[in-house]
Amino acid sequence: MKTDERTLKRVAAMKLSTVYPLLVNKVERKGRTRAELDEVITWLTGFNEDEIGRQVRDETTYEEFFAAASLNPNAPLITGVVCGVRVEEIEDPLMQKVRYLDKLVDELAKGRKMEKILRS
Do you know which InterPro entries this protein is assigned to (predicted)? Predict the structure, then answer.
């Protein structure tokens, strides 16, 4: 699935400092914790909790965040639909990584077991 150029630019410029608190609120509203969210982000990106905090404080953009990440080799096992789009069919690498994160956060918020979320 191809994403239009304007959407790609907007998503690439989004700051982690804006998105991260929204992710925390989403999972906490559903009874999960910030630590669990950080575990999911760590699994996907290779960043530890301190590095995630630094990226948030430094107002890193999504493009910079995912460029510096070491994507988990099992990330392609993340499949399914996010916002009406199949994650595995997204053509743009950045948008696919963003949707991988969205999918993992959705699974966490829905109460899925951590072992299944982390594809272990």
Answer: SP1917_dom_sf, UCP033199
> d(Cα 4, Cα 41) in Å, to the nearest integer?
26
Tokens encoding 102: 């969205």
What six digits make up the tokens of 57? 């404080």
**Mean of the pLDDT values across residues 42-51?**
97
Task: Please compute, for residue 112, the number of CA atoms within 13 A of its CA located in the half-sphere on the CB side.
Answer: 17
pLDDT(73) > 90: yes
The domain segmentation of the chain, as residue ranges, is 5-113
Rounded distance, CA 105 to CA 16, Å? 14
Question: Structure pTM?
Answer: 0.93
In the block, tokens 């992710």 appear at 23
